[in-house]
Amino acid sequence: MEEHVVVLNELRLRIQELSQLLNQRQATSQRLLQKYEELRAKYLEQKQQIQALSEQKRKLVIESEALEATARFVEFELAVASSKQKPTPPKQASPKKKKSDGRAKRKNQKNIIAKTKKTK
To answer: Is the pLDDT of residue 15 over 60?
Structure first.
């Protein structure tokens, strides 16, 4: 009978040890689960922030492109307006060349020929 009592006591001690170990593991599991839920909540919050920032960036890019297009249009309009405002200077007539008289030309050529003959 004593053997049974000793075995029962050993079993009770083993059950208590296993029960404590189980309680410790459950407590650890609970802490890990809580930590997981906290991290998951942070992750979801940051994911939403990233999506909001991405949307904001997309809107800013569109707005920036619109502003650039407006600036180019305004520059174009200014260029057109300034070109209309500048009076073009009147073209000055180039001095007319006198029509050469054929007789004077021939006379000049004869004089040149005569001078070259005299120098030879």
So the answer is: yes
Sign of CA dihedral 102, 107, 108, 110: positive
Q: What's the N-to-C CA distance of the chain in angstroms? A: 166
Instruction: Report the alpha-carbon distance of residue 117 to residue 120 in Å, rounded.
Output: 5
For the entire predicted model, the pTM comes to: 0.48
Length of the chain: 120
Distance between CA atoms of residues 44 and 36, nearest Å: 12
How far apart are the C-alpha atoms of 118 and 109, rounded to whole Å?
A: 14
Residue bearing tokens 């906290």: 38
Domain ranges of the chain: 2-86
Q: Is the pLDDT of residue 62 over 90?
A: yes
Looking at the predicted structure, is the pLDDT value of residue 120 above 60? no
